[in-house]
């Protein structure tokens, strides 16, 4: 199934206008609860953690995608408008541009008012690294890195999978993405249990991550940034990251902004070092943060234009009729 352009447009408008629908049922929240339930059950049933992790992946994706398909099928059985609105709502919940802006801006606002303690606490909600002792510059760096990375994971990738397979395909992707965020850690608890989920997430984000970097290069002038430096740093530093995908958007963003990302951090009390990405031509500060937000939105609009054009070419998404 491929998406109707009207479904994509409405989903994008809803995301940009409303962000995370906290007062409405959110599929990703339900997926998270499903993962928690399945993980505990599978750990108790199976002694082989790697095998249990494969089953966790298969059950979570199958149930998530199957429930999305069934919901659309039932809504389409009521009438075409119900099917259309259901498809638009599911698509909308897969996108994260407005919520990425809102949650990162809360950290930036706390820093701007000098409330370092609040900035550290708010940052801990959106990044995996330890935040309790970060200085201002390290918080700004973490914000730029997470906005750059999540432009790929939370915006470009969902739009990519929506265009290829409609809301059901995208819900399967969100299930994998949620699995990766919950069990895809290289910790003692999840090293084996989360292996299948982490590798599948890498695979599903492989093309979108590289597409995000390309779009950021093209979008840089729209945000008042340097496309030449974005292209150069992407080519030079895109592999300076332990993730096979995250280095691409981070390198493009670092080049466009003229900043240096990477360096020291800690995760669960354990020190970590990431190779540097970019050159320190400009400081990491509030101006840098505002620029990465503009770059994120410009990239989103370019990706949206590509997806809507592709959806038109593919002749639209048809919700199955009863």
List the helices and strands and how they pair.
Elements: H1 5-18, H2 27-45, H3 49-78, H4 80-93, H5 97-112, H6 116-124, H7 136-183, H8 195-204, H9 206-219, H10 227-237, H11 247-257, E1 261-267, E2 270-277, H12 286-313
Antiparallel strand pairs: 1-2
Please tell me about this protein's structure:
- The model has no long low-confidence stretch (mean pLDDT 92).
- The chain is mainly alpha-helical and 322 residues long.
- The protein has one domain.
- Helix 1 runs antiparallel to helix 12 (286-313), helix 3 (49-78) packs across helix 7 (136-183) and helix 4 packs across helix 7.
- The chain contains 12 helices and 2 strands; from the N terminus they run αααααααααααββα.
- The protein is 70% helix and 5% strand.
- Strand 1 (261-267) and strand 2 (270-277) form a beta hairpin.
- A two-stranded antiparallel sheet has the order 1-2.
Keywords:
globular, two-stranded antiparallel ribbon, 322 residues, 2 strands, 12 helices, mainly alpha
Radius of gyration: 20 Å
Give unreliable regions as ranges: none
Structural class: mainly alpha
Most strands sheet:
2 strands, antiparallel
* Gap from first CA to last CA: 16 Å
In which order are the strands of the major sheet placed?
1-2
Q: What share of the residues does DSSP label as strand, in percent?
A: under 5%
Helix content: 55-70%
Q: What is the strand tally?
A: 2
What is the count of DSSP helices, taking H or I runs of 4+ residues? Answer: 12
Tell me the series of helices and strands, N- to C-terminal.
Answer: HHHHHHHHHHHEEH
The tally of domains stands at: 1
């Amino acid at each position: 199934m491929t998406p109707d352009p009207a479904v994509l447009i409405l989903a994008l408008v809803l995301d940009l206008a409303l962000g995370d629908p906290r007062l409405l049922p959110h599929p990703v929240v339900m997926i998270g609860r499903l993962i928690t339930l399945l993980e505990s059950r599978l750990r108790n049933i199976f002694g082989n953690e790697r095998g249990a992790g494969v089953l966790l992946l298969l059950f979570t994706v199958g149930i998530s995608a199957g429930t999305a398909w069934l919901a659309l099928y039932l809504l389409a059985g009521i009438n075409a408008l119900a099917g259309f609105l259901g498809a638009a709502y599911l698509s909308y919940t897969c996108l994260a541009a407005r919520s990425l802006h809102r949650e990162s801006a809360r950290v930036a606002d706390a820093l701007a008012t000098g409330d370092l303690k609040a900035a550290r606490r708010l940052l801990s909600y959106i990044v995996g690294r330890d935040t309790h002792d970060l200085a201002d510059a390290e918080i700004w760096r973490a914000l730029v890195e997470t906005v750059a990375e999540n432009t790929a994971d939370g915006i470009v990738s969902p739009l990519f999978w929506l265009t290829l397979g409609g809301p059901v395909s995208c819900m399967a992707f969100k299930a994998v993405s949620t699995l990766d965020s919950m069990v895809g850690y290289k910790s003692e608890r999840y090293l084996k249990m989360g292996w299948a989920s982490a590798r599948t997430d890498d695979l599903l984000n492989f093309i979108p991550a590289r597409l995000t970097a390309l779009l950021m290069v093209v979008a840089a002038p729209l945000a008042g940034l340097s496309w030449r430096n974005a292209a150069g740093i992407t080519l030079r530093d895109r592999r300076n990251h332990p993730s096979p995908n995250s280095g691409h958007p981070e390198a493009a963003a670092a080049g466009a902004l003229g900043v240096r990302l990477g360096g020291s951090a800690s995760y669960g009390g354990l020190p970590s070092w990431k190779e540097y990405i970019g050159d320190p031509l400009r400081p990491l500060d509030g101006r840098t943060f505002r620029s990465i937000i503009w770059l994120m939105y410009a990239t989103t609009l370019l990706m949206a234009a590509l997806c809507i054009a592709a959806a038109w070419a593919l002749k639209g998404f048809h919700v199955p009729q009863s």
